[in-house]
Structure formats: C-alpha cells, structure tokens
C-alpha cells in the first residue's frame, strides 16, 4: 500500500493548505487503514489549518469508510476484515494523518463499526461529536449511559442542543433516562425537541438561566457547555443550583460562581498522548482506555437506538470544496448542520 499515492488536503506550514498527491499511509501495529468514503468538518479543522503552522500534515478529523488494510497485532476479537464499514476520528492537521484524504489510519479499537442502515455521509460525523459527548457525560461526570440508564430522576443541561456535539449529547442523555434541558435559537427548538430534549430555551434571552434554574427547582447539578465561550460560561453557571455543580466544557474556562467545578474535555486526548495544540493537555492513559470503551458504547447505541444524525450539508466537489466549507463555517453560517464531503466527488481522482 505504501508505494501508492492518494489525494489529500495538506498543510503548507504558513496557515495555508493545498490538495496534494502524497503516499498512502501504512497502518502501524494495532491500526487499520480506512479508505475514506465521506469526511465531516469540525470547527477545529479550519482553526488548525490557520493557527497550527506545521507543514506536511493532512487536515480533517472525522471520517467514514471501509477497511482497506490491517496492521500487525490487531485484536482478532475486533473482527476487522477488509471492506468492513467503520467511522472514527483522528487528530488531523496536528498529526501527519488526517481524514481529508482518500485513506486514513486509526487504532482498530477506535474504529466504530457502522450498520448498513447508516450512510457513510451520516456516519462520518460520529467520531468527534460522539467521543466528545462520552467524555462530557461519562469521563467528566460519570452520568448514566443509555446501556445503564438512570434509576432515579436526574436533570442535565446541554447548552447548545443544535451544535454538533450538543445534538448527540441531548440524545445520549435522553436515552439514559435523564431529563434534558437545552438551548437553541427559536427556529431550531423543534429540532432539539425531536432529539429528545424535554425543554428548550432561547440562548440569546437574558432570562434563560433564571428560567432553567426555575425549571429544575434550583437544584441543577450537571451541565455540558457545548459552546464554552462568550456569555455561555456565565449563563451555564447561573443555571446551576445555588450550591453549584459540574460543567463539562469544550473550551477551557473557570466558573466565577462559587461551588461550580468545570471539567475541560478535549476529544484528542482519546489517543492517551501528550497534546500541545489546540491546548496543552498532558497524556492520560485513562483517556485512551475510555476511548476504546466509548467506541463500543457508541457502536451499540447507534445499532440499538439509531441516533439521529446532524442534518448533513454536502459540499459538491469533495476535497476540492474544503476551502468553501471552511469559509462557510468560519463566517458563522453553520446552524444545526454538519458540513460533509464525499471523497468520490473530488475532481481528478485516479479511481
Ligand atoms: N474540546 C473538544 O474536544 C471539542 C469537540 C468538539 C467541538 N469543540 C468546540 O466546541 C465548539 C462548538 O463546536 P461544534 O462543532 O459542536 O459547533 P457547531 O455545530 O459548528 O455549532 C453551531 C451551532 O452553535 C449554536 N450556537 C452558537 N452560539 C450559541 C450560543 N451562544 N449558545 C448556544 N448555542 C449557540 C448555533 O445554534 P443556532 O443555529 O440554533 O443559532 C449553531 O447551530 C467549537 O468551539 C469547537 O471547536 C471542542
């Protein structure tokens, strides 16, 4: 495989990137090579392209495709056979290996098996959003999972039920038997309710934190802040009980409210390695073990309950559309949707 070349979106090291022909990667021990069918975009992709000025890295984190090759020492229990449909995430743009390419490598125990009923386009958004959801709800707060639901009533606030992670966090929390409160702009209230939110509030309304506190009898202890910047650190803190509580955050911050503990989660810690970008995060072997566990959990939740994907916005020219996708997202146009690319739509592919 390593002598073959592929098209990929590669960083130049000065904040720019280009589509280039590069070698197809070789799967290392415990890894598989995936032929990417569809890739989804996350805010981190355009931010990494601009700010992490290291040349020669392939951008893109989220992918879905089929197993093309299997490295040494892959656990046979994972049943990784060529052609198997899988999805997942890598630290694209920061490591040389990225999802905006014809092929990507991933540890076999972090490849989420996808059912025939889920399209590659929809499956390509599972990686970052679902791993982050699991880190927020289970790693950071040990909340009940859909496989071991809550036995007693428990409220959780998912701030931003329309964000990519928020749409999955609402579904995982509801399937676990929690009462889910969430926020969105009014045009998206119905979408968030259809995902399972019991109550949805307008994030731009200054009375929302007070209304959430009232709706939870002033006793809310658990929140996930899927935005974690601007007003939300204060809004989420004010929604929690007087005694405080815990907020899982997607960007790092401390709450100014007494008794509120924040736990910053970073999806890329799933590899259990030291991270320098986008934030310094020391290696935590527990996070690597969790990633393997969450992979199985996500697989089971997807196949048993059939999660609703973020509505996909497919850009027409595959990898060649990535500059347009970055601009669409960077200029704040994304609303309750997932920017998605089909690799086969890329002009000039060999096959
Ligand atoms: N730490 C991690 O591992 C990690 C993982 C994933 C994402 N992130 C970060 O989390 C942030 C969100 O990423 P994403 O991909 O989930 O976002 P996204 O899907 O691009 O978010 C877009 C949505 O955010 C909503 N929104 C905007 N401002 C809001 C506010 N003040 N309150 C509530 N909702 C608001 C909009 O809702 P309406 O359309 O209803 O207006 C829009 O639908 C980014 O900064 C990203 O880098 C971090």
TrEMBL record:
One of its GO terms (molecular function) is oxidoreductase activity, acting on NAD(P)H. It holds the Pfam family ADH_zinc_N. InterPro entries: ADH-like_C, ADH-like_N, ER, GroES-like_sf, NAD(P)-bd_dom_sf, Trans-enoyl_RdTase-like. SMART domains: PKS_ER. Residues 13-334 form the Enoyl reductase (ER) domain. Transmembrane segments: none annotated. This is GroES-like protein. It comes from Obba rivulosa.
């Amino acid at each position: 495989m390593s002598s073959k070349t592929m098209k990929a979106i590669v960083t130049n090291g000065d904040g720019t990137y280009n589509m280039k022909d590069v070698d197809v990667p070789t799967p290392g021990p415990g890894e598989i090579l995936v032929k990417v069918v569809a890739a989804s975009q996350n805010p981190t992709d355009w931010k990494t392209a601009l700010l992490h000025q290291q040349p020669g890295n392939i951008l893109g984190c989220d992918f879905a495709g089929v197993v093309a090759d299997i490295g040494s020492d892959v656990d046979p229990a994972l049943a990784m056979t060529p052609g198997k449909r899988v999805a997942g995430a890598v630290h694209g743009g920061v490591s040389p290996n990225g999802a905006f390419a014809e092929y990507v490598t991933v540890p076999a125990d972090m490849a989420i098996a996808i059912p025939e009923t889920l399209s590659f386009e929809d499956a390509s958004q599972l990686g970052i959003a679902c791993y982050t959801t699991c880190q927020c709800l289970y790693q950071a707060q040990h909340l009940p999972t859909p496989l071991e639901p809550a036995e007693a009533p428990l409220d959780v606030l998912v701030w931003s039920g329309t964000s990519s992670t928020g749409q999955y966090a609402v579904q995982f929390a509801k399937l676990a038997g929690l009462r889910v409160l969430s926020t969105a702009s009014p045009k998206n209230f119905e979408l968030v309710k259809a995902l399972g939110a019991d109550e949805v509030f307008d994030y731009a309304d200054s009375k929302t934190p007070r209304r959430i506190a009232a709706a939870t009898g002033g006793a809310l202890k658990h929140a996930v802040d899927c935005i974690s910047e601007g007003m939300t650190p204060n809004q989420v803190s004010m929604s929690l009980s007087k005694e405080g509580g815990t907020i899982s955050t997607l960007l790092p911050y401390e709450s100014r409210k007494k008794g509120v503990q924040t736990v910053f989660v970073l999806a890329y810690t799933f590899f259990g390695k030291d991270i320098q970008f986008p934030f310094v995060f020391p290696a935590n072997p527990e996070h690597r073990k969790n990633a393997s566990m969450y992979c199985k959990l996500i697989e089971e939740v997807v196949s048993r309950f059939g999660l609703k994907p973020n509505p996909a916005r497919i850009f027409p020219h595959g990898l060649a559309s990535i500059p347009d996708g970055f601009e669409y997202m960077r200029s704040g146009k994304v609303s309750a949707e997932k920017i998605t690319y089909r690799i086969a739509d890329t002009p000039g592919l060999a096959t």
